Amino acid sequence: MTNKDKHQEQQSTEKLSEAEKTPLLGMTMAELEATVKSLSMPRYAARQLAEWIYVHHVRDFSQMSNLSLRHRAALKERHTIGTQLPILAQHSQDGTVKYLFPTLSGQSVEAVFIPDDERATLCVSCQVGCRMGCRFCMTGRQGFQGNLTVTDIINQIESLPERDQLTNIVFMGQGEPMDNVDTVLKATNLLTADYAYGWSPRRITVSSVGLRQPLERFIRESQCHLAISLHNPFPEQRLQMMPVENKCSVKEIMAMLNTYDWSHQRRLSFEYIVFEGLNDTPAHARELVRMLGQTACRVNLIPFHQIPDTPYRGASHDKMVAFRDYLSHHGLTATIRASRGEDIMAACGLLNTKKGGNAIT
User: Fold this and answer.
1) 279 vs 355, more confident
2) 162 is catalytic
3) Which of 52, 129, 166, 301 has its CA 20 to 30 A from that of 349?
4) Do 69 and 117 reside in the same domain of the chain?
5) CATH no. for residue 246?
6) Which residues, other chains included, contact 140 with Cβ-Cβ below 8 Å and sequence gap of 6+?
7) Distance between CA 340 and CA 361 in Å, rounded?
8) What secondary structure does DSSP assign to 250-305, as a single string?
């Protein structure tokens, strides 16, 4: 036996700790096929694994009854299922629930379950913190602490107590999806794959502040809905609120978006938090109509949820109604988003898992 053979034999017999094992949750069919091949299992076992994990939602290899005991043991030696239950839940008086999930890196991230009559939405995170630094966002204040893996993202759905009630998923939690685009694309592909969750891409919306190159890739490779965080149509004013404007201007993003056809089932929307005296004037409304009037889209007007130590104040409801009506009367589809979960810091812009301050640990 050569030294190489001895080394391989030693590796195959080494006991791995749980932390060293590779999770199966988040694997594509091609990755599952490579996994079963490495364990000398038949290729069809990959589809069996996908069904057990993504369809039957098992949490232990012992439940995989159509796999031999030998194959189950081999899987358990090298892999984990990868699911992790939430470690904290906070319930709002309006029915919203904010969950704190552990990540593979030992950190934590928040996801928000929002029931609404026959609709139930989960707001998932894609990063711990965020590097975009938007002035009005608690996640932006947290700073960037790491990308989530596809296992971390899918686990927020798989381990959600209300998983079977879900009708929609929005990537609007912690982090900028286009700053972790490889993983977000992989996650959305799993959510829509016939061997995994089999969701329609029309049930999934991904939000972005507008990072051009990854955004172009996302539009090409995914059919999920897209929401752009706009918040101000004037570039110099948007820059004061959103530092990303300096890297990729809203004019550049609009020019790129207008090269695509948004007139079919795939939806393009623009998120617009309305601030008192900052972006709620007739001039802002007129500029939005000018900017978006030739684009098949909708505008979601969002109440500002107050955060500590900020000069920003939310516009009154009457001001938001007047703003919406102006947009609607000039040809834009505009709605006011209902505020949910503000009492548990679960509303738009309030998620934060940094230790100390308003964090949840």
Assistant:
1) 279
2) no
3) 166
4) no
5) 3.20.20.70
6) 130, 132, 133, 134
7) 22
8) HHHHHHHHTTS--SSSS-EEEEEEEBTTTS-SHHHHHHHHHHHTTS--EEEEEEPP
What does pLDDT average to over the chain? Answer: 92
- Whole-structure pTM value: 0.92
**Separation CA 361–CA 354 (nearest Å):** 8
Catalytic residue, from 20, 31, 110, 216: name it.
Answer: 110
Catalytic entry in 123, 126, 134, 348: 348
Is the Cβ–Cβ distance between 108 and 100 less than 8 Å? yes
Structural domain including 178 reads 88-344
CA nearest to 25, candidates 124, 122, 126, 155 = 155
Question: By the 8 A CB rule, do 185 and 221 touch?
Answer: yes
Find how far residue 292's CA is from the centre of its chain. 25
Does one domain contain both 36 and 97?
no
239 with 246: CB under 8 angstroms?
A: yes
Q: Is 348 a catalytic residue?
A: yes
Specify if 351 maps to a domain: no
Q: Grade residue 76 by pLDDT with cuts at 50, 70 and 90.
A: very high
